[in-house]
């Protein structure tokens, strides 16, 4: 494309953006927008009667919230927020002493990160309902959420990375979850001029072992040219040993990327044969580089997280592992790289492209065999575009980003600038339907859309702008998703539902695959927390210097003990509270006046610890914060704090101690 033509395209795109934005602001209210169905019909399709349950769990990334929102489909009801990379006041994640290590990194404890993408574990290319993997973008990490508990149980930091955007996409049997660098860096890190970008900056593609809980680790990294690696998708069927990564900024610009990284007509999809890399790593090829990255694991039985810092990583290069990576020329600044259910077609969403290119895996293999290369970059062969192209979807709209599939021969692509979803046919590449979104759709999701067997029933659009869709809430408006019925010829908008944080990406799975494995409570008999108290006679208080340990139990509707005396100003008091309940949905909470770090929410059978440092003498109330019974309000107590050096002995009203009446009598004399 000539400079003149490119300039014209940008002006045209800018004009469309401005027109669309103006339209958003000025469009009159409409009771039934294009692509919708009648209100009664739509309501009947998303209505889940009281006592009934949704058909799907949907997991939407929370973006800058660092959390995952779990919703039911088709109702759009929010079921749970799962904290992963951010502290969470609802249940004390990241605040309690047991969970703080989950947020440890080589940079220290990071209480808030940016969670972009989700990926469900798979078996034979199908979602299996065991785990949800998510990525932290800013401080590169991958987290594993156990779907039996909906809790984060493992987080691995990714070394030699900056901006973990192309992550945590998964191979078809969960052998690996992957991570790629959005921001290339000097690798290993070094003090170099930024102007040395082309010479000194590199990217990495990391393969993380994912199949065994508690044992995630970087199996190997591939050093790649200093582009921006964006998104990825694993192959399926014939392409299952490959992973496809989009990249942009092949210009290797390092300032004003909006202009300087948008000049080339084509960037690349990196087609990576992970089986080949795995064989090279197993053979000891490449080098072991020094590293320092955190691996955080929540123990299944103690329910205490620990951190291990790993000290080396195996780094491969295209030269040390030949025939493992090829570049597929792809217009233009591609974002999504999506593989159809058959594994034959690789679809790119070039943000600035005027077509949606579809590469053929069979043609890629032939081009490799025929050495149909147009050039090489840092030793990586660049295949000829025409040799690998299956077809192009013409005139899709503006800003194609992400494509998913319905398993019935159709693909659905989001278009950010023109705010729509286009439905097109695999093989003929003809557009068969369009539906507007409200507004500026980013990614979209079809339940099972990343697998070999998509459901083909619903599509969820994740939108970036929601002005005029909900009651206003000040400068920050509700984040939003929209649900479409895609079971028929035409897409039909059924529902808007607000979301938590900014949803970048999502997965959904049949609820039946997750419901069957739900844990209802933690077995008190299996509780191996070092300060667990499994019955009220075991409760008590003890002092070690300035540290006071309170071993406490909670059960409807009291704490034991609930009176503690002998604490002194400046003591560090650790309340180790065990919830003795063995029933579903009976957590207890704990709070004490003046605690500066947290409250607790303790699941049945679990032990959690709150740290409290009283700063002034007095008597401080404590209470249960989760309404647990008819006598919840009575679930309270006191801690007496005396001056430093006080003669008041440390004591508590445990079951072995004197009760209130006896103590009152004692103090009469």
Outline the structure in words.
The protein is built from 9 helices and 45 strands. The radius of gyration is 28 Å and the shape is globular. Residues 1-31 have low confidence and may be disordered. With 669 residues, the chain is mainly beta. Strands 6, 7, 8, 9, 10, 11, 12, 13, 17 and 18 form a 10-stranded mixed beta sheet that branches. It has a 6-stranded mixed beta sheet with strand order 41-40-43-44-38-45, with no helix packed on it. Helix content is 11%, strand content 42%.
Notable characteristics:
669 residues, mainly beta, ten-stranded mixed β-sheet, six-stranded mixed β-sheet, 9 helices, 45 strands, 11% helix, globular, disordered N terminus
Element layout with pairings:
Elements: H1 3-26, H2 39-46, E1 56-61, E2 67-73, E3 78-83, E4 104-105, E5 108-109, E6 115-123, E7 126-136, E8 141-146, E9 151-157, E10 176-180, E11 185-186, H3 197-200, E12 201-209, E13 217-225, E14 228-234, E15 242-248, H4 257-260, E16 267-273, H5 274-282, E17 287-298, E18 305-316, E19 325-330, E20 334-339, E21 345-350, E22 355-360, H6 361-369, E23 373-377, E24 380-383, H7 385-388, E25 389-394, E26 400-405, E27 410-415, E28 420-425, E29 431-436, E30 441-445, E31 458-463, E32 479-485, E33 492-499, E34 506-510, H8 511-515, E35 540-544, E36 547-555, E37 558-560, E38 563-568, E39 572-579, E40 588-592, E41 600-602, E42 607-612, E43 618-623, E44 636-642, E45 651-652, H9 660-666
């Amino acid at each position: 494309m000539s400079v003149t033509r490119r300039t014209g395209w940008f002006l045209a795109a800018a004009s469309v953006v401005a027109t669309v934005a103006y339209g958003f602001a000025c469009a009159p209210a409409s009771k039934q927008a294009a692509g919708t169905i009648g209100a009664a019909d739509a309501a009947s399709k998303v209505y889940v009667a009281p006592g009934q349950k949704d058909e799907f769990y949907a997991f939407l990334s929370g973006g800058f919230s660092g959390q995952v929102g779990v919703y039911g489909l088709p109702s759009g009801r929010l079921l749970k927020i799962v904290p992963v990379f951010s502290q969470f006041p609802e249940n004390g994640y990241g605040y309690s002493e047991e969970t703080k290590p989950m947020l440890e990194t080589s940079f220290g404890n990071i209480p808030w990160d940016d969670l972009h993408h989700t990926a469900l574990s798979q078996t034979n290319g199908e979602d299996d309902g065991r785990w949800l993997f998510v990525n932290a973008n800013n401080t590169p990490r991958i987290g594993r959420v156990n779907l039996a508990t909906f809790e984060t149980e493992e987080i691995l930091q990714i070394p030699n990375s900056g901006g973990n955007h192309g992550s945590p996409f998964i191979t078809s049997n969960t052998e690996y979850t992957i991570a790629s660098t959005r921001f290339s860096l000097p690798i290993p890190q070094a003090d170099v001029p930024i102007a040395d970008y082309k010479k000194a900056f590199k990217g990495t593609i990391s393969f993380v072992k994912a199949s065994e809980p508690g044992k995630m680790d970087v199996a190997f990294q591939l050093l790649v040219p200093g582009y921006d690696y964006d998104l990825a998708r694993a192959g399926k069927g014939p392409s299952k040993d490959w992973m496809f990564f989009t990249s942009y900024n092949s210009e290797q610009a390092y300032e004003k990327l909006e202009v300087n990284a948008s000049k080339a007509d084509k960037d690349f999809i990196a087609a990576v044969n992970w089986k080949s890399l795995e064989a090279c790593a197993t053979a000891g090829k490449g080098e072991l580089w020094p590293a320092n990255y955190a691996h955080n694991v929540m123990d299944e039985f103690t329910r205490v997280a620990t951190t291990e810092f790993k000290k080396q990583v195996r780094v491969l290069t295209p030269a040390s592992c030949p025939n493992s990576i090829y570049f597929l020329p792809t217009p233009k600044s591609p974002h999504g790289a999506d593989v159809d259910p058959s594994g034959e077609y690789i679809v790119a969403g070039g943000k600035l492209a005027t077509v949606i290119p579809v590469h053929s895996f069979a043609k890629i293999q032939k081009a490799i065999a025929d050495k149909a290369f147009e050039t090489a970059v840092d030793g990586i062969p660049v295949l000829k575009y025409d040799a690998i192209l299956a077809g192009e979807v013409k005139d899709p709209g503006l800003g194609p980003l992400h494509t998913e599939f319905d398993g019935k021969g159709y693909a659905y692509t989001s278009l950010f600038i023109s705010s729509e979803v286009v439905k097109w046919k695999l093989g003929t590449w003809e557009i068969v339907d369009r539906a507007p979104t409200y507004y500026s759709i980013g990614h979209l999701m079809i339940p099972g859309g990343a697998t070999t067997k998509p459901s083909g029933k619903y599509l969820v659009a994740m939108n970036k702008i929601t002005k005029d869709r909900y009651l206003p809430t000040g400068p920050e408006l509700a984040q939003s998703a929209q649900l479409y019925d895609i079971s028929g010829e035409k897409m039909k908008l059924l529902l808007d539902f607000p979301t938590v944080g900014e949803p970048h990406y999502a997965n959904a799975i049949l609820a039946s695959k997750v419901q069957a494995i739900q844990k209802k409570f933690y077995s008190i008999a299996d509780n191996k927390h070092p300060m667990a108290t499994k019955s009220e006679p075991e409760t008590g208080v003890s002092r070690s210097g300035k540290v006071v340990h309170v071993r406490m139990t909670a059960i409807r509707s009291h704490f034991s003990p609930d009176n503690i005396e002998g604490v002194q100003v400046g003591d560090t008091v650790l309340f180790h509270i065990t919830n003795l309940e063995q029933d579903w949905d009976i957590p207890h909470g704990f709070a004490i006046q003046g605690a500066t770090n947290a409250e607790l929410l303790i699941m049945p059978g679990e032990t959690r610890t709150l740290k409290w440092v009283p700063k002034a003498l007095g008597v401080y109330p404590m209470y249960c914060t989760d309404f647990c019974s008819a006598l919840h309000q009575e679930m309270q107590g006191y801690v007496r704090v005396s001056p430093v050096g006080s003669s008041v002995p440390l004591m508590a009203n445990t079951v072995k101690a004197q009760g209130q009446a006896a103590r009152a009598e004692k103090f009469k004399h």
